Every structure is written in structure tokens, then in C-alpha cells.
Amino acid sequence: MSNRKMKAGIIGCGNISGIYLKNGSQFGSYEIAACADIDLLRAQAKAQEYGIRALTVEELLADQEIEIVINLTIPAVHAKVCLQALEAGKHVYVEKPLAVTREDGRRILELADSRGLRVGCAPDTFLGGGIQTCRRLMDEGAIGVPVAASGFMMSRGHEHWHPDPQFYYEPGGGPMFDMGPYYLTALVALLGPIRRVTGAARVSFAQRTVSSKPKAGTVIEVKTPTHVAGVLDFAGGAIGTLITSFDIMGGTDLPHIEIYGSAGSLRVPDPNRFGGPVYLRKLGAGEWTEVPLTHGYADNNRGVGVADMAAAIREGRPHRASGALAYHVLDTMHGFHEASAEGRHVELQSACTTPEPLAADARL
Q1: Second CATH level (architecture) for the domain 126-295+329-347
Q2: CA-to-CA distance for 158 and 162, rounded, in angstroms?
Q3: 6-121 under CATH 3.40.50.720, yes or no
Q4: Using alpha carbons only, what angle is made at residue 243 by residues 170 and 184, rounded to the nearest 5 degrees?
Q5: In which residue ranges of the chain is CATH 3.30.360.10 found?
């Protein structure tokens, strides 16, 4: 088995690219060799900062050295860029969501399968020390048989801090498609796949006014639900509730995720982060007890999903932040919106395997 690092190239040099570029040198299974953007000046600035090559998108896709494309474009073009990368013979890892539509998601997976290529997808925060510690506790029976879960992503939206927040209020955005993948991926990693969903969704405010620079004062027409309340039936029997919202103007103290079992409860840390804290409350206990993290990757380790995929290609095993998992999450998110619009339960047509836990001493 070769220990050679696979060569990766980034397409999309926006806000999120910095952490991928910063972390790209810390993993043993891949390295970032080039970046590209439709704005070549932006790619050149990132390339100069991190000592890599700046290319046009076409040049990067044609570059024989690049084996993995890391797709950090906006959601509306996730599918287009993924399909271009696969057509060029590259493995692809894409920021969440996998695609805007189920149809595009399926096209990505089908093309990859026909070409013998891998598809990976963010979030990879479930590989961090916080959620992996929770996984170990659950596997060891710390809360007994899981019976229920709750999740809350409650915020006031992105127009007060993001430099260009409009796409968060377009189809493929909103709290469910923006932040839901973190919560749903964590829940599937801990409880397994989802069988059916129902929910309610609404646009609470038809317009949003940007207060962050450089677009302060811009009015955004909201085109996707900004408050989504869902109920999930897991294939394993547990029932979950999940609220994602951009409409919580006064804040809240609700937990990010809690899982309830026959022998106790587990408070899962923020699934948008890699670390803790993790809290356990056993049956009969009067208060929560913090549990020390058992696993690494507890800092901002974005890119660990790419590292696991590159290592899996080298080792001939499944990778954890897989396209199938991402498609199952995409199917679930659409299910919430459809359930609200049609007043019914939605039986999910997708399935995935529960990702294997990381070893406590894993180094990717």
C-alpha cells in the first residue's frame, strides 16, 4: 500500500476555502496542490497566500496531477461542478448539500458509480472528537437503547455577519439546507438511517435587509422556508424532532442535540464544530456529567472527510462522509419541505449504512 499523498484541487475560493487550505497540509493522505475560481483574481490571491498554483476551472479539471476535486462553490452549482469533475475522471468531495435537487444528487452518484470514482460530502464534523466520543458512549451502552432525540438549530440568519448572504435565502439555502446537514448527519452517525419524516415549514419574513459589509442595506427577497420543524422516524425505532430556524431574533438556551435512551440521556455538542463538550446523565442522576473526549480531531479540522476519503481510496475501504450518506440527508431535507407543503408523512426512498466509527487514535 502506497503512502503517497493524493493531490487535490479546490474549485471555489470563497469564504469557506480558507479553512480547507489552512488544514490541507496537516493530513497524511492528501495535499492541496491548486485552486480555481470563476474569479481568477480570487484564486490567485488564495494561491499566493498558501503557496499553491492558481488555475482556471477548466485548467484544474484538465490537470492530470489533480486526483480529487474539492468543490466549495455555492449550492446552486454544486451538482454542475461535481459532474464536471467526475467527467474529467476526478474523485470529488463537495461542501454540503450534495446538490439542490434529488435528481441532481442521483446523477452525481450514478456517474461516479459508472466511472469507479468516489463522491464525498461535507459535513465532516461528525468525525470530530465530540461526536465520535458520543458514538463510543452509545456503542458501549451508556444510555441503553435509544428511544428519542431532539435537535435545535436556532439563529437569526446570516445577513448580519456574512459578506454575501443572499444565497442563504434561495432554494438550496435556508436553515434546513444550510445547517440541517450538520444535524442530520450527526443523527444518522449516532442513530442510523431515517425511515420517514413529516414537518411544518414557513417563510416568516418575506424580505431580509443585509446589515453586514460590503452589502449593507441590500434587501433580499426570501425564496425558501426560514423556519422548519420536523419529526423523524429512524429505521432503528427511535423518534426524533428537529427544528432549524433563521427566525429566532431573541436567542435561545436550547441544546444543540440530545439523545434519550432507556438508561440515560446524552447531550451532543454543536454538530457544526468538531469538539465538545459532551454531557451524560444516567438514569436516576440529578445532573449532567461532562465526559472527557476520547478522540482527536477536536479543533476546526475541516477537510478530515477528504482525508478519510483519500485514505479509503488507498486502503480499498468505504469512506465515512460518503455520497450515499449525503444523498440520504438531501432526501430527508426535501422530505421535510414536501411534508409541510402536502400535509403528509414522506417515506424516504434513500438509504445508507451508518458510518463506521473512527478509532480513538486515528490519524488520517
Answers
A1: 2-Layer Sandwich (3.30)
A2: 6
A3: yes
A4: 80
A5: 126-295+329-347
Residue 195 sits at φ, ψ, to 5 deg, of -95, -45
Residues of the chain with CATH 3.40.50.720: 6-121
Q: How far apart are CA 180 and CA 182, in angstroms?
A: 5
Give the cell for residue 57: 476551472
Type of residue at 141? G
**What are the DSSP E strand ranges found in 166-324?**
194-202, 207-209, 219-221, 227-234, 239-245, 257-261, 264-268, 278-282, 289-291
Is 127:297 a contact under the CB 8 Å cutoff? Answer: yes
Rounded to whole angstroms, the Cα distance separating 336 from 199 reads 5
Task: Report how far residue 46's alpha carbon sits from residue 40's, in angstroms, rounded to the nearest whole number.
Answer: 10
Per-residue pLDDT of the chain (364 residues; tens, 9 = 90+): 567 899 999 999 998 999 999 999 999 999 999 999 999 999 999 999 999 999 999 999 999 999 999 999 999 999 999 999 999 999 999 999 999 999 999 999 999 999 999 999 999 999 999 999 999 999 999 999 999 999 999 999 999 999 999 989 998 889 999 999 999 999 999 999 999 999 999 999 999 999 999 999 999 999 999 999 999 999 999 999 999 999 999 999 999 999 999 999 999 999 999 999 999 999 999 999 999 999 999 999 999 999 999 999 999 999 999 999 999 999 999 999 999 999 999 999 999 999 999 999 999 9
Q: Which DSSP symbol is given to 26?
A: S
